[in-house]
Amino acid sequence: MPEIVLSEFAGLSLPDWIDALIRIVFIVALMTVNALALIYLERKILARFQQRVGPTRTGPFGMLQSAADALKLLTKEDVRPTSADRWVFELAPYFAFVPVFLVFIPIPWTETWIVRDLELGFLYVFGVLGLNLVGVVMAGWGSDNKYALLGAVRAAAQAISYELPMLLVSVGVILIVAARLTVDGGSAFGAVNLNVIALEQTTTPFILLQPLGFAIFMIGALAELHRPPFDMPIAESEVVGGYFVEYSGIRWSFFFLAEYTALLLLVVIGSTVFLGGWNFPFGEDVGLGLQVLLTIAKTSAVIFILFWSRAVLPRLRIDQLMAFSWKVLLPFSIVQVLANAIILAYGGGEWIIGITSLALLLLLIGLVYGRARTLSRGAGRSLNKQPARPRLITAHDPAGGD
Amino acid sequence: MSATEIVFYCIAFFMIASGLGVVLARNIVHSALALILALGAVAGVYVILTVEFLALTQLVVYGAAVIMLVLFALMLTRARERPQALFGKNRPIAFVIAAGLLTAFIAGIVASEWATTNPDDIEPLPFQEIGDVLFSAWAVPFEVISVVLVIAMAGAILLSQPDQGEQ
What is the pTM of this model? Predict the structure, then answer.
């Protein structure tokens, strides 16, 4: 890890291109190791939740299982369906992968360990990460397979829907940062910089001021990453693997590399924006070495929660999924942003923001819980009924006249 | 030739190539994919002009959202099976109009008095100034655009509603 800052710390004056090369090599290594480690840990953790032991044979505690799988994938035959659209099919994995790679640039691992400190870092992350959908849609369409196309359409619909609440709740945080930066008549310049957002949390992490924001951000991240309980695009029982059903070997592994890297990135961004990133909680000043450990600790804790939710939560239906974003999360995040703006504009203390957000979060939990209760109570009775037909497809819906 | 110029010419070449791809591709989904590259190249030009905010907005709005909806429409409507629909008998007229527009644009660009043509003179524009003028001097156009969007949305909902039948 220290290589990345050689030029800044050891007083070495490296030429720019060598510096850039070192940073790129470092990122590539981190990506690969991260994907291998996360796949292994996910299998182990899921196995524990299901009272199994998971991989044990390859290496100590099965730790080399991911590496063995990666080798197998690299040597596998690269199959392309004859009816596939050749260029779209073959380029899709790279279009899915490159944007994720580019997102590494503005991530603050510590106060100074950043590939490049971008002033519009947060906006950059979402601008670039959104492009990886193009790869997904290319894969779905280029495969010339109905399941792949359905999976891709689901992925795109889901990502567009859940990006909105995620961005809006982050705007709530950015409003607080901007208000703090302008408090002495200063300029709000830098409020979108991820490192500045982390710097503003030396005493209180924003999760205390925006608990609703953190919850919605993490739900959105789950949906963006197509992870259960939001894994409709790759649901095995419905679309048999989704948009990468026709891929094999190295192209398939590119999709997985992109997915696990995006998981790491979104969680790191979430913990930077809401959990204080490299800050020790409540204003303790620690050295640079500990800062990176703090980033890793917060990130791993959140990733563990994501794995946990995969193990214990049932999967939603695609229409429930879309309705949850547009009818529940989006109104809540809009209310959150408006509440923040009004409280800050009228000079209310930040504790009022925290209480409002907490109240909204409790309301959200209450709504979801109540709805789940009603649904599960009705479940026994409605078993004999016909399953509800999707409303969008039916031209003449006898039940839907309003 | 400075580094900025080299980058600019690379981007410009890329933009023109993908623009031609949009027009000339026989498959309409390929056109849409080439459009992503063209719009991405425009974002690159914005970066050279030091308006990173505009570049990122371009990526968020066009790269991710608008193109995705275009692809949605194309993929769900069997557009792939009728590629020849792109080339109708109005092609010569379209060519004349496009050539005329191109000439007019080039003439306009050449004839304009630019504040500077030296890339080193470009002053970086802080993005909060865009926000300031957007919500003060240009507040009314901004609101008008949002009204237009709401109307478009209402129209889309109305059009996509199933026939209500007799009520």
Answer: 0.83
